[in-house]
């Protein structure tokens, strides 16, 4: 056991933490985590925190899940890694076959992080059209408030100014279309009507400019970094139809929403559509190891299949298809099968939503919303530092939450139980009543996902 204050100081000096203005840690201490178990994270002093954000949306079955751990250990005894160019191994083959079976998309290309999956999908789409003699199709359409990662290509299709504005000179200029976010409903309008309005705007852009557009990229059903903006599946149906009509690829970024988050294994299923590219990461290894994957169709694959080397997809990452990560992903798929996770989550989600009724009715709560194993609401407050204040108050009540601006969300690991969720709801209600929601005499803090 080490003294936690020692780790804090050493971390502040040596680690440049992600998505952080490091100076804020002069006032706000880092939280040192010693170990994890199920839905709980433990610090060095034995305090525990309910991981209500699944450690940035990656953890599906809780920390230290024995089946995933065992699969990685077993793989470790035979092969830790081999390059996937010119070589192959059982975990990558099996995972590709099983993902093809589940998604209906027969070819799997691997990367390491979500952002690299976005890059792969964008490059593949552009290169597909180029191989077909249509190199002028080089623009991407993305949604307002969309998020697809933070490498330069991914930032170009990301609409979160806090992350992208600074780098505007580096990113390429795409086309942005209105979000179908159901919160934008005008009086008397339903979520389906907002979706229809946004879909018409998309159709107009595609009709006019499809000659220069390679693909539309979107987060199906829930725009995560936008503050868990949820929308009607009709939008996806119309988007699919418009892409087909105008010869534009549809890239479904299910990095956050894939693997059961929205109530189906993949969110696209709820609209009955198949994308041309499906980007997966985050939950794919249950939150154990970095891995991402882009699944695509035979027709995309065939456009690269040629005697000419440069018509092939000459893209790689050193750890492409890492066997340890693939074996973790196979264990995750086994859990989905063996424990009928989707059906179990459906029952859980129904009970949890009932537990949250007092929150949905709270006077400071706006737009309470729910999709699958994600719940979110906006808080009516004039405090510029709301997200920071809420985070700190919840941490004192043993809950790890990370509001995005004034949107509070819960995205717990699927192993969370009724008692833990009741605790989360109680802590949230207490925090909403103890936090001063009026007044803005605090310095503005950036709202980070
Ligand atoms: C997290 C996320 C990404 C980026 O994944 P990283 O692993 O953080 O690079 C891309 N798209 C969506 C929808 C995400 O939620």
TrEMBL record:
> Which keywords label this protein?
Aminotransferase, Biotin biosynthesis, Cytoplasm, Pyridoxal phosphate, S-adenosyl-L-methionine, Transferase
Q: Which GO terms describe its molecular function?
A: adenosylmethionine-8-amino-7-oxononanoate transaminase activity
User: Gene3D superfamilies in the record, alphabetically?
Assistant: Aspartate Aminotransferase, domain 1, Type I PLP-dependent aspartate aminotransferase-like (Major domain)
Q: Write down the chemical reaction(s) this protein catalyses.
A: (8S)-8-amino-7-oxononanoate + S-adenosyl-L-methionine = S-adenosyl-4-methylsulfanyl-2-oxobutanoate + (7R,8S)-7,8-diammoniononanoate
Positions bearing the site annotation: Participates in the substrate recognition with KAPA and in a stacking interaction with the adenine ring of SAM = 19
Report the protein's function: Catalyzes the transfer of the alpha-amino group from S-adenosyl-L-methionine (SAM) to 7-keto-8-aminopelargonic acid (KAPA) to form 7,8-diaminopelargonic acid (DAPA). It is the only aminotransferase known to utilize SAM as an amino donor.
Tell me where in or outside the cell this protein is found. Cytoplasm
Oligomeric state and interaction partners are given as: Homodimer.
Entry protein name: Adenosylmethionine-8-amino-7-oxononanoate aminotransferase
Q: Which organism is it from?
A: Crenobacter cavernae
Record carries keyword Transferase: yes
Which positions in this protein are listed as binding pyridoxal 5'-phosphate?
A: 114-115, 253, 317-318
Indicate where the modification N6-(pyridoxal phosphate)lysine is found in the sequence: 282
> What pathway does the UniProt record associate with this protein?
Cofactor biosynthesis; biotin biosynthesis; 7,8-diaminononanoate from 8-amino-7-oxononanoate (SAM route): step 1/1
